[in-house]
Amino acid sequence: MIFPASSLRRKSQNHQFLLLGMRIAVYNFSMSNAEAVFNPVTHVHVPSTGTTGSCPSPLQAFTGTIQPNKVTVTYTIGLAIVALGMLLLTVSYIGLIGLAGYGGWYHIAHNADIMRGSGGGFIKLFLYIGPAVAAVTLIFFMIKPFFAARPQEPSRYSLTRESDPVLFAFIDKICELVKAPLPSRVDVDCQVNASASFRRGLSSITRNDLALTIGLPLVEGMTMQEFGGVLAHEFGHFTQGAGMRLTYFIRTINNWFARVVYERDEWDIKLSQAASGIDIRIGIFIHFTRLCIWLTRRILWVLMHIGHAMSCFMLRQMEYDADSYETKLAGSNAFAATTAKLRSLSLASQFAYHEMQESWRNRRLPENLPLFINVSTNSIPPDVKAKVEEASAKTKTGIFDTHPADADRIRAAQALSQPGVFHLDEAATNLFNDFVGLSKTVTRFHYEHNLELKFTENNLVPQEVAVKESKTQAENHQALHDYFFGLKLTFRPLIFSKDVLPATPVATLIENVKNARLAMEQSKTDVQQALVEYEQAENLYQRGLNAIVQTSQQATTKADATKQTFIPALAAFEQQAQIRLTAALQLLNAPEIAANINEASSLQQEAATLAVVFARLSQAFVPLQELRRKFNAFSTMLQTRGPSSSNAKAEQRISELAPELENLIKQIRESVQGIPYPFKHAREEITIDEFARSDIPATHKLEALYNNCSCQLTRLLPLYHRVLSRLAFIALQVESKL
Asked: Which residue, 214, 337, 525, 660, has fewest beta-carbon neighbours within 10 Å?
């Protein structure tokens, strides 16, 4: 299961950062279908195990009024230019359809002379019929997006005035200050997000029929002052009547052009297959048609980017306008603090979803996702936090950005020098009648309706346990980083002996630990360079495996020879790591050392169990890596072959790889067979072999093999690193007492 990244209303760039950043999304003027709304009246509410929040006095903390923003000349001119530009783009698109039709008709009507005379029958037919066929096909492909089915809107979980009266009174007060219409519906979800939208899409655009969506992770992590500022920002959009409605149309047109340019459906696939699967004399017509379609889409690509660039200017102005309302309500200083918190929560959501991917392999999920995301802020490595902050400070607003950069927004907010009219540091969760119970309910709703997971109560981990496990995972990841001085042995195993080691004096073990650690630290620079070179050779090796042409496959031989030159340096580092880890775990059982370690007895039992597991996983590591390489090649061949099974070379390569993959899976299973899975799992009694087996239904042999390979890799390789990180954590606990 792939979990989506969460989003925020603040967005410094119009693209998605990976590990170092986040998708920070804007309010969304979505086109809604028929509503599918749940609320505490119609949906089963999960009782809270905590206390019911109560806050009788947040309204009393409001002081003063907010002056509405004046419409600037720049904003008005920008609005007019964008409106005109989007209209011209729409006319251009319709004009292209008309031009294609007129061109085909004109050719047929005025160039019939091409068919006269004798000889060259096929060429004449192509010159006369080809352009007309291309025009008709081109028109079809340009109008078919009008009839494409829209994706079904997700179900929503909504609150009512009866369920959360304090929250609605809070919303009413802010709308009154901002002079914005009240939302017709208030939804909650598990995203790091706050958004404003037309409740029923196009049918709501002529009325103030608006919906507000509140991300519960925001509420979990904010004070009332910060949360009030976020709401003021969204209600600031509500006040942008004409601008908001125009934005709806702009986004609709932009999305339309994007669909025309990028979206490919069954008709596109059929056209491509037809071009390669029929007689060349007929295929040339299809290829000519595809060329016309490609050229048209390139023209539309240009129009799309022109429209996007024009609309982005107005969207950025709207964001500045909405920011000013947040600043007037909560204050300029609070705006900067909220921006930093939103950035941190967004990054935490990335880590939280990554941990959920890991835990779902064990069929376990946190029962309170908003709390889990907030706790994950403590799991973000300091160096990652520092890089995100550095990148945010350096980011400049670009012409294609729908939102200004954070630094620009903060400067604009500070320039307003607003003290704010609402200052209350109580938890925003107190605005809700039962926030803990609501979070649990919406978490289940999110798993079921958004992620489409099949789960039972046995799969849900109590929030206390989930928080503890998240903290443990963060400690283990940091320990792995520290133990290996930031080096990542991605493609190389750390071999761990399962044999009973001879008794060694404590003094000797201590000396072994210190000497091995010093050797690892001193060789760090050389090993880092070797790892870079080794990884490049590994990538070359993979490209050779992925190739169909035999000459390209020879790259694997060259890459393998290159890797051999770096193995001595890596092997020496790995040997020192093995000596260090083995000695530390032996010292854990020495009474004079264990007496100084917290929970030594528990760590001893855990280390004994994990040592056996890690020894078996070490044996499986080499065939796992070979499985990874050949599975990548296998996947490439399946894609190259395509659904028609017409690529003979790809078919031959698949037939060669399939038995090799089956043999590797057999070796891996033999290595871990009968070993109990060392961590908590929804199935209490499970072996590592069972854990790694595919539970995905398959309709044929190749699909079953694909699923089996995927499960072995996505479950056992992370398990290897998880066990190693835990052993590294235990070893560092021992080393800290030496």
From this structure: 525
Contacts of 14 (CB under 8 A, 6+ apart): 312, 398, 400, 401, 402, 403
Measured CA to CA, the distance from residue 356 to residue 351 in angstroms comes to 9
The runs of H, that is alpha helices, within 548-599 are 550-553, 555-588, 591-594
- Mark 15-43 as b/e (b = at least 16 C-beta within 10 Å): eebeeebbbbbbbebbbbeeeeebbbeeb
Q: Tell me the chain's radius of gyration from C-alpha atoms.
A: 31
CA distance 239 to 625: 57
The residue type of 211 is A
Amino acid 414 reads Q
Angle at 676 between CA 501 and CA 630, to 5 degrees: 90
CA distance 187 to 234: 13
pLDDT digits (tens, 9 = 90+) for 497-533: 666 567 789 999 999 999 999 999 999 999 999 999 9
> How far lies 386's CA from each of 136, 344, 347, 389, 483, in Å?
56, 11, 12, 5, 21
Two structure tokens written together for 124 = 């004449």
What stretch of H or E contains 156?
A: strand 156-159
The structure tokens listed for 555 are: 């790259």
Amino acid at 654: I
Q: Is 516 exposed, middle or buried (0-12, 13-18, 19+ CB in 10 A)?
A: buried
> What gap in Å lies between CA 60 and CA 48, rounded to an integer?
28
DSSP category for residue 601: H
Question: CA 597, CA 735: separation in Å to the nearest integer?
Answer: 10
SS3 of 577, please?
A: helix
Neighbouring CB atoms inside 10 A of 73's CB total: 7
**What is the pTM assigned to this prediction?**
0.73
Given phi > 0 = left and psi -120 to 50 = alpha, else beta, which region is 187?
A: beta
Nearest to 487 by CA among 573, 563, 562, 572: 573
With a cut of 90, say whether residue 662 has pLDDT above it: yes
Give the burial string for 170-191 (b: 16+ CB within 10 Å, else e): bbebbbebbbbeebebbbbbbb
Write out the E strands in 344-458.
Answer: 365-366
Residues 6 or more apart whose CB falls under 8 angstroms from that of 722 comprise: 358, 476, 679
The tokens of 24 are what? 């920070």
What are the structure tokens assigned to 100, written together? 């294609």
Distances (CA, A) of 189 to 193, 408, 445, 700: 8, 29, 9, 39
Whole-number pLDDT of residue 276: 57
Cβ proximity of 250 and 314 under 8 Å: yes
- How confident is the model over 37-49, as pLDDT tens digits? 565 554 444 544 4
Q: List the beta strands (DSSP E) in 402-542.
A: 460-461
Q: Give the Cα separation of 621 and 613 in Å (integer).
A: 12
Q: What is the dihedral of CA 156, 161, 163, 169, to 10 degrees?
A: 110
Backbone angles phi, psi at 198, to 5 degrees: -75, 130
pLDDT, tens digit, 9 for 90 and up, residues 262-313? 666 556 666 666 655 555 555 666 666 667 667 777 777 777 777 777 777 7
* Tokens 């950062």 belong to residue: 17
* Number of Cβ within a 10 Å radius of residue 246: 19
